[in-house]
Amino acid sequence: MTDITDIKIFDTTLRDGEQSPGVNLNKQEKLEIAKQLERLGVDVIEAGFPASSEGDFQAVKLIADTIKNSTVTALARTKKHDIDRAYEALKNTPNPRIHIFLATSPIHREFKLKMDKQKVIDTSVEMVTYSKSMFNEVEWSAEDASRTELPFLAEIIEAVIDAGAAIINLPDTVGYTTPKEYGEMFKYVSENVPNIDKAILSTHCHNDLGMAVANSVAGIENGATQIECSINGIGERAGNAALEEIAVALHIRGDFYPYTTNLNLQEIKRSSDIVAKLTGMTVQPNKAIIGRNAYAHEAGIHQDGMLKNSETYEIISPALVGVSADTANTLFLGKHSGRHAFKDKVKSFKVELTEEELSAAFSSFKELTDHKKEVTDDDIYSIIMEIKTDASNIERYVLNNFEVNYEQDGLTKAHIDVVTPAGEHVSHEVTGSGSVEALYKAIQEIIREKTNLLDYQLSSVGGGKDALAESRVQIKINDQQFSGRGTAQDVLAASANAYINAVNRYLMSEQAAAPAESVNA
Ligand code: KIV
Ligand code: ZN
């Protein structure tokens, strides 16, 4: 019988995933995602990059102070300052891990680092030794490992293991490798690093050629026992290996892959939903495992086969990953439902609310039932997330009132009243060729920051004519992208809220920013 190997899942949604353009989560949102990752059963949560900004430091600290069942790690460059910041942020978590990285490939050595091979080894060894004086568990990454000369890779790995690194991560940083080549790199390292038995090997794959999941699996077939991945595959450029795809592939093809993970697969859909909602990165309908169409059968021949035996065309049961068989939304509470029933429903989402948050959520729910006959699970979840991730403690713009009128000449006039971060009421009236355009022009006139609208989306939460509207926008301020979302019964209110939310996220990042230094990994 084949031995079964336990594969550790290292989730980097909050670090590499958060590096996706336009994603800027506040610390409450990051905490909600971290709690969901803990429920999903990931072994390691990479909570952020504390030295990159004060905001990131605070978010990592909040997660480290809260999460108990997963190892919490944070990224650091091979610099004492970064390692000290990571230590400060992680010191209250029961299982802290530092994750330090330095590039090893010729192109990075020559053009980015301007270091020769020996300098890259010495710097890595020095900083692993320094990290080891503060952390029990040290992970070292060879950035751009997949484009590094194999003998040099083996040499530096041996040195950092001797210095105390217990996890060696070999990223395909630019998503360039192929499954065979990536697998061979792990095989080479396993066979040519004399002290490799003192460390575990880890994969970290980017999806530029669409091979991140296949490459990760090739890594474990050749000796890696940790996979770094992210929910919905979000991450730098084309993203990282998608956690849900790896998890389900290993499970469904357990006949072929002798591996287990500690993941609770039924939490996959919820994890995907929360990440999509909070990051604003919607999941494509045909995305494997969690896309809206992943379990939909359109062709007549397929539908006929499904009715006779679902296994004719369905290799994954939707229930396995927590997708409800009832694709129409579960009907939920209504006008006459009481606080008790509401509290029970909130409990079923496994989201903890304080009494104060529960009261706020209950009154939003009651308000909604004045306009909406059937309130769905999605509606309730949206309300709860709005409350859990509220950032009303920052100085920000608040939409006070707006009115939109259609003029006889086919134009639309928007009048808007906003409270500024300084507490002043400012109103403005603008004419545009459509209601959203007029509304957004009026907001742009009021706010101090120069904004550029990059993307605008409108969708409904749940089903029915009276569904809540959800709007998402991407805007650019000072060459940085920010996403915003707004939910309301009325589409224009949702749209206005989304725009103001995006501007407030810019203010939040400004208020949390440390002295500027570009440190994206
Ligand atoms: O892709 C990469 O190389 C990384 C490292 C910082 C681990 O994200
Ligand atoms: Zn990466």
TrEMBL record:
Location of the Pyruvate carboxyltransferase domain: 7-269
Pfam families referenced in this protein's UniProt entry, alphabetically: HCS_D2, HMGL-like, LeuA_dimer
Region annotation (Regulatory domain) ranges: 398-521
Signal peptide region: none
Binding site for Mn(2+): 16, 204, 206, 240
E.C. number(s) listed in UniProt: 2.3.3.13
One Gene Ontology MF term: 2-isopropylmalate synthase activity
Enzyme class: transferase
Metal-binding in keyword set: yes
Keyword terms: Amino-acid biosynthesis, Branched-chain amino acid biosynthesis, Cytoplasm, Leucine biosynthesis, Manganese, Metal-binding, Transferase
Cofactor(s), by name: Mn(2+)
InterPro entries per UniProt: 2-IPM_HCS-like, 2-isopropylmalate_synth_dimer, AIPM/Hcit_synth_CS, Aldolase_TIM, LeuA/HCS_post-cat, LeuA_allosteric_dom_sf, LeuA_bact_synth, PYR_CT
Matching CDD domains: DRE_TIM_IPMS
Catalytic activity from the UniProt record: 3-methyl-2-oxobutanoate + acetyl-CoA + H2O = (2S)-2-isopropylmalate + CoA + H(+)
Function: Catalyzes the condensation of the acetyl group of acetyl-CoA with 3-methyl-2-oxobutanoate (2-ketoisovalerate) to form 3-carboxy-3-hydroxy-4-methylpentanoate (2-isopropylmalate).
Subunit-level organization: Homodimer.
Protein name: 2-isopropylmalate synthase
